[in-house]
Amino acid sequence: MKRMLSLMVPFSLLLGCENLHREESSVPKEIAENAVTSAPKKLVVLTFDDGNVSDLTTAAPILKGHGFGATFYITSGWVGKPGRLNWEQVKELHDQGFDIGNHSASHPNMLHISEDDIREQIISFDEACAEHGIPKATSFAYPGGHHDRRMVKALATEGYLTARRAVSPEYPLYDRGGPGPLYNPSEDDPFLIPGTYVRGNLSSSDQEFEEVLSGARDGSICVLIYHGVPDVHHHCSTSVELFTKDMRYLKDNDFTVISVQDLSKYIDVTKRPKDIYEPLLARLGVSPKALKCDASSKNPVFSWEIETTRPQGQSAYQILVASSEKNLNSDEGDLWDSGKVESNQSLEIFYAGKSLTQVERLYWKVRCWNDPDEAEIKRVSNWSAKEILGEMGKIRVSKYSSAASFSFE
After folding, report:
1. Which domains does the chain show, CATH number per domain?
2. Exposed, middle or buried: residue 110 (CB in 10 Å: 0-12, 13-18, 19+)?
3. Would you give the distance in Å from CA 126 to the centre of its chain?
């Protein structure tokens, strides 16, 4: 499922991440052995950030009434502050059966602190939980959703199993919230679980919410991010009415709603890609869709639309036209191969190949190169790792579109 804006390379791990993480993570063997091979349809992971009093007084009773699980990510340095949970209340959430996750000690932008300070943010939370009788967390939520390789390495070293990010870099990061990628356990690193939707009063579209949830199928999982119901901050607050309606929708439509911790019942959270960022970077380009061909004249005219989840456009295209599906499937444009054409045009591209007869059924497809939006890259530069910013600025070629056909009959 894609929620797209219509116009919209793998790395080698610097520290041998794949083996390093597996050796340093304290992963119970039974997790991998007991997990099923893929997630069931309509699986939703429910998360709450920051540790608002309303987590216990409002959200928890509604969740218990529906039999839903959830992970509450707590910032330990905020515990006891106005509008936030105190430690007795955090313990009460745990005692009610909810998962308590680590949201750092002080909620800094961890991109801009040292490796020692990253580790301190993780460990300080663990120590505070131990002091108040709360078991060690197994999941972490990056403050602000900002992540880099140093954080992933530190979490694995400290025995964590999973971590949840936000929606970027695949989708724009806005204070109001909004959509992000589905979580695909067969591709995504468990330390980079994406938020599929950051929900709140400023991102309250029912149509968008339902569309996001419809993607929870074929092994993909929808990860919802809420803050307080309500929250101490206006921009990320959710009204009781909206939250109640959302949970009723999940219940009425038979979604399975779980915590991050309970993912291990359905998937192997020890499975890691060779490079943690490769799956994310593969989603940064554009894709052609809705192919059309006007064959009402002797010279066909081709058009398509561009899909992207980020502010960017098309910088080039390549069209293949073939006399058979077999040739096209082999990427052989035996009638016309336009080659790479530097252009942002995707409407009314005129055929320029071999002469055609008017009784043939012909086949065509197109691929496109993206045109990164430098202003958008600059906008998010404070909240994105330098490595990711560099990748966001690269031009990438899409896969070829699905084949389309036309004839003059």
Report:
1. 5-280 (3.20.20.370), 284-407 (2.60.40.10)
2. buried
3. 27
Beta bridge partners of 328: none
Q: Is the pTM of this model over 0.85?
A: yes
What is the predicted pLDDT for the residue at 298? 82
> 230 in the Ramachandran plot: left (φ > 0), alpha (ψ -120 to 50) or beta?
beta
Q: What's the confidence (pLDDT) of residue 408?
A: 84
The predicted pLDDT at position 38 comes to 66
| Strand 222-226, strand 43-50: pairing | parallel
* Contact indicator for 226, 243 with CB cutoff of 8 Å: yes
Distant-in-sequence, close-in-space partners of 12: CB < 8 Å, separation ≥ 6: 275
Residue-wise burial string across 345-381, b where 16 or more C-beta atoms lie within 10 A, e elsewhere: ebeebebebeebeeeeebbbbbbbbbbbbeeebeebe
Q: What's the pLDDT at 9?
A: 33
- Rounded distance between C-alpha atoms, residue 173 and residue 288, angstroms: 24
Q: What is the 3-state secondary structure (H, E, C) of the chain?
A: CCCCEECCCCCCCCCCHHHHHHHHCCCCHHHHHHCCCCCCCCEEEEEEEECEHHHHHHHHHHHHHHCCCCEEEECHHHCCCCCECCHHHHHHHHHCCCEEEECCCCCCCHHHCCHHHHHHHHHHHHHHHHHCCCCCCCEEECHHHCCCHHHHHHHHHCCCCEEECCCCCCCCCCCCCEECCCECCCCCCCCCECCCEECECCECCHHHHHHHHHCCCCCCEEEEEECCCCCCCHHHCCCHHHHHHHHHHHHHCCCEEECCHHHHHCCCCCCCCCCCCHHHHCCCCCEEEEEEEECCCCCCEEEEEEEECCCEEEEEEEEEEECCHHHHHCCCCCCEECCCEECCCCCCEECCCCCCCCCCEEEEEEEEEEEECHHHHHHCHHHCCHHHHHHHCCCCECCCCCCEEEECC
- In whole angstroms, give the CA distance from residue 149 to residue 153: 6
90 contacts 61 by C-beta, under 8 angstroms: no
Tokens of 254: 């038979």
What residues in the chain have per-residue pLDDT under 70?
Answer: 1-38, 409
What confidence tens digit (pLDDT) does each residue in 230-241 have? 999 999 999 999
